[in-house]
Write a structure and sequence with these properties.
By secondary structure, the chain is an alpha+beta fold. It has one domain. The chain is 24% helix and 27% strand. The protein contains three helices and four strands; from the N terminus they run αααββββ. The strands form two sheets. Strands 1-2 form a two-stranded antiparallel ribbon. Helix 1 crosses helix 2. The longest helix is centred in the first third of the chain and has 8 residues. It is globular, with a radius of gyration of 15 Å.
């Protein structure tokens, strides 16, 4: 799974793996603060009542951000930050 994410994002396996280990690596990087925020909205809070789930990844200032948009065969669209 991580290999595919790294390949799709155009980053190394090590970079993708490090993003997956934020909680484990956080204590060793004092500039890493806040970690992640998750959210969910549904019903009247969204257009058409569809459910929206999201999560950000707080990383280093200036760290390059890669946004990956995936549209699945069933029409579900997914945005992923790598």
């Amino acid at each position: 799974m991580i290999e595919g994410q790294a390949e799709g994002a155009g980053i190394s396996f090590d970079q993708a793996f490090a993003l997956r280990c934020t909680l484990e690596l956080g204590p060793y990087y004092p500039k890493l603060s806040g970690l992640c925020t998750s959210f969910a909205a549904r019903g009247k809070a969204t257009r058409g009542g569809k459910t929206i789930l999201g999560q950000n990844i707080d990383w280093y200032p200036g760290f390059p951000i890669n946004l990956l948009k995936i549209t699945h065969e069933d029409g579900l669209t997914q945005l992923t930050i790598l």
